[in-house]
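Notes from the 1:1 (GR / supervisor)

We went over the backlog. Supervisor wanted to see one worked example end to end before approving the batch request, so GR pasted a single chain during the call. The sequence is below; no edits were made to it. Supervisor asked that the structure be written out right there so they could see what the output format looks like.
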Amino acid sequence: MHSFTTERLLMRPLAEQDRDLYFSLYCNEKTMRHIGKAFSHQEAEKAFNNSLKAMLKEKPKVISWAITTLDKNECIGLGALNWQSPDIAEIGIMLVRNSNGKLLPEEAIGSIIECGFNLLALQQINACFAKKNLATARVSKKTGFIFKESQQPVDIQQRIESVFKHSWHRHYIKTIIG
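Structure output shown during the call:
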C-alpha cells in the first residue's frame, strides 16, 4: 500500500491510530449530513475494523488513507477509493471542519486521483455526492470531474461526476513512499 505526499499533505494507509478520527467523522451528524445517517459508536467500530481488514487483501476493493498535514503532522481527514470494476473506482474524502477553505480538499482529491491513475491502473474515477452539497460540487469541478447524463443514478438527489485517465494532466504527488 502506497503512501504519498503533496505540497502540504501526507496520504498514508489507514491504520489503528486513526480510530478516533474515523469515529469523530463518521459519528458526527453535521459531517455526515450529505452522506447518510451518522454512525452509532457500534456501527463506526464495525466499519473501521472492516476498512482495516479490507486493505489487508491482496487486491483490496477499498483503499483508505489518512490525510495528514506535513507542517503540523495533524491528521485532518480520510480519503478512499472504492472499486466498482477492475478499472473504475469511486472516490470519497471527509475532512475535519477547520480544514475547509484552504484548498486542502482539492489537493487531497487530486493526489488520490493521480495515485489511482498512475499507481493503481484505474481508467475512470467517479464522485457521487448529494446535489445539495454545493461545497463538494465546487471541489469536484476544480479537480476536473465532469457531468455525464448517461451516468446519473436513479436517486435524483444524487449526482455522479467522473474524471478519466486519458484526459488527466495534473500533478499533485511530490513523493511516493513505499
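Supervisor's comment: The longest strand covers residues 75-85.
Batch request approved.
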